Amino acid sequence: MRDLYKRLGVPADASPETLDTAIEACRHTALRQDADAVLRIPARREAYDQLHATLGDLGRLRARLGLTHAPHWQDDVANDFSQDSDRSLSRHQELADKLDALVAGGDTSAASRRPWRWAAALLGAALLGLLAGAWL
User: Fold this and answer.
1) Which one has a higher pLDDT value, 37 or 93?
2) For residue 24, is pLDDT > 90?
3) Residues 64, 86: contact at Cβ < 8 Å?
4) C-beta atoms surrounding 126 within 10 Å
């Protein structure tokens, strides 16, 4: 879906007069027809504004997760609600880096706890066996 406000170069809270001016000045025939059919009718504009807000929220969420479109999607209709990521690395890259560090032994905290877990489990099993033997 196109972001009609973005494509027309007006803010989402533009007045009807500003929208009329922007629609009339638009040189793209299909965009002008879409904007005319959606933004000039109050009930349709209200429904479009609700959808516009939802898609904007999704675009912000995608950006926060590092799920931005590839460069070849820039200026495409599919990219209208995308936003620049506020992260230097994508979430995927961060997770891959953490996994690499774990595999390389960079995080030994989890590995150092493992022997104690096994010892505690064996001790617990031995105590259970002793209790069961004493009870029988």
Assistant:
1) 37
2) yes
3) yes
4) 10
Length of the chain: 136
Please, are residues 80 and 6 in contact by the beta-carbon 8 Å criterion? Answer: yes
Number of domains in the chain: 1
Name which residue leads in pLDDT, 102 or 135.
102
- CB-side neighbour CA atoms (13 Å) of 122: 6
pLDDT at 38: 95
- What's the pTM value of the predicted model, to 2 decimals? 0.57
In this structure, is residue 127 part of a structural domain? no
Read off φ and ψ for residue 119, nearest 5 degrees.
-65, -40
- Residues 89 and 68: their CA atoms lie apart, in Å, by 11
User: Can you tell me the distance from the alpha carbon of 7 to that of 31, in angstroms, rounded to the nearest whole number?
Assistant: 8
3 and 12 Cβ atoms separated by less than 8 Å: no
Average pLDDT of the chain to the nearest whole number:
80
Residue in the structure block whose two tokens are 């803010």: 11
Q: What is the CATH number of the domain that holds 47?
A: 1.10.287
- Average pLDDT in the 58-87 region? 68
